[in-house]
């Protein structure tokens, strides 16, 4: 029994529970919302000639506002939703692909992510093959073949963070899965053992011993701020004491486990995209802005003199030790004031994490920030309806010769 066949048999036999279906509905609504929030983003024109799954995934990820599986540090829905929708899939197809992505992410482990891989793409390509393949009617052996055919595209690196490359490589992973599923349906053959050979090559631990339920072990985290998940906790911690700040700030010391800043690769950001992956800028945005939102992550906002001044005042104290996720331990921050005063804050679990789920009202408020028309578009949303909305707002446009 190969890993590919074990995962394929699980996916083919998977039957969602009501709790799984409720999670799928939230994931669909959140993914659609954050994609629509990017309707005016420059990437829209750049990505217009990409196939459906690639185009939609890239647009849903470019603002970095989509959900995250914290146990594996993978953006599951931004891969599995577009892959399912591109071929007419439904909640079951999404959940099967999402479940495979969570299980592959667990096999890849933290070491894979810490080495610099973008696990959303590496785990995402084979998972997208399952989501699309189930929607296309593949049997278990066909799903195993599709995963093997997706292996050559299972790449992506954190060096792309802070550029268009991050969202585009997520799009490439989603499309690679769709392409692999279509090839498998057309009769292409592949060796299922390719998946576990690849897992070993990229530092993973192949296993056929994985949980059968729920669909997505550990659930999904929903973001409140449009930036890397590693910034959600420090921003939430600092917002809790923002009103206590009186007078000039002379320094901010942030203490956090070393691994929790793995994706925050820009210490001195100068663009909006770089600001989404910067712990010092997380401090600046949390202290300067009433609620860090889209306007906080523009080029102009990052380059504000007051923001750049705060960025220069941030000192990060990394606590060594074994790390397994972006929410290990806790984040603490000390704000030093010119009058000699200090303000201290700490936080272990930010709002929106599976342990602190957002209310329906919070989710609807997030959707409203993504566009005045978005809450109405979500009313009675179906998987077919979501596909129609994406086709209307992000149509395919052939590239000019």
UniProtKB/TrEMBL annotation:
Protein name: MmgE/PrpD family protein
Highest rank taxon of the organism: Bacteria
Gene3D superfamilies (alphabetical): 2-methylcitrate dehydratase PrpD
Residues in MmgE/PrpD C-terminal domain copies: 225-374
Domain MmgE/PrpD N-terminal: residue ranges: 56-196
Similarity annotation: Belongs to the PrpD family.
Source organism: Streptomyces cylindrosporus
């Amino acid at each position: 029994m190969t890993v590919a066949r074990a995962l394929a048999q699980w996916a083919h036999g998977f039957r969602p529970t009501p709790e799984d279906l409720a999670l799928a509905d939230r994931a669909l609504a959140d993914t659609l919302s954050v994609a629509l929030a990017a309707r005016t983003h420059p990437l829209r024109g750049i990505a217009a000639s990409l196939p459906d799954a690639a185009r939609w995934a890239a647009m849903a990820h470019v603002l970095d506002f989509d959900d995250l599986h914290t146990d594996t540090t993978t953006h599951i829905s931004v891969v599995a939703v577009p892959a399912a929708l591109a071929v007419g899939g439904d909640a079951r197809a999404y959940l099967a692909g999402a479940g495979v992505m969570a299980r592959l992410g667990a096999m890849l482990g933290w070491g894979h992510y810490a080495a610099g891989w973008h696990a959303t793409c590496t785990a995402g390509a084979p998972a997208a093959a399952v989501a699309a393949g189930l929607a296309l009617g593949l049997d278990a052996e066909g799903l195993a073949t599709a995963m093997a055919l997706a292996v050559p595209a299972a790449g992506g690196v954190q060096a792309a963070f802070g550029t268009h490359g991050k969202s585009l490589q997520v799009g490439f992973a989603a499309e690679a899965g769709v392409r692999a599923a279509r090839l498998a349906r057309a009769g292409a053959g592949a060796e299922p053992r390719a998946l576990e050979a690849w897992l070993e090559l990229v530092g993973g631990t192949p296993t056929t011993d994985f949980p059968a339920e729920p669909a997505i072990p550990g659930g999904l985290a929903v973001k409140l701020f449009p930036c890397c998940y590693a910034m959600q906790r420090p921003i939430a911690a600092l917002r809790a004491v923002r009103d206590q700040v009186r007078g000039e700030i002379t320094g901010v010391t942030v203490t956090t486990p070393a691994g929790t800043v793995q994706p925050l690769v820009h210490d001195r950001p100068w663009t909006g995209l770089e600001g989404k992956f910067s712990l010092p800028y997380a401090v600046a945005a949390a202290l300067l802005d009433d609620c860090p939102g889209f306007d906080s992550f523009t080029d102009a906002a990052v380059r504000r003199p007051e923001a750049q001044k705060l960025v220069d005042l941030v000192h990060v104290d990394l606590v060594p030790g074994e790390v397994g996720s972006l929410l290990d331990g806790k984040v603490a921050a000390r704000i030093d004031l010119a009058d000699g005063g200090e303000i201290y804050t700490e936080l272990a679990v930010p709002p929106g994490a599976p342990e602190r789920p957002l209310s329906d009202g919070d989710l609807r408020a997030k959707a409203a920030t993504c566009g005045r028309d978005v809450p109405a578009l979500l009313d009675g949303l179906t998987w077919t309806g979501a596909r129609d909305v994406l086709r209307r707002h992000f149509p395919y446009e052939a590239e000019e010769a």
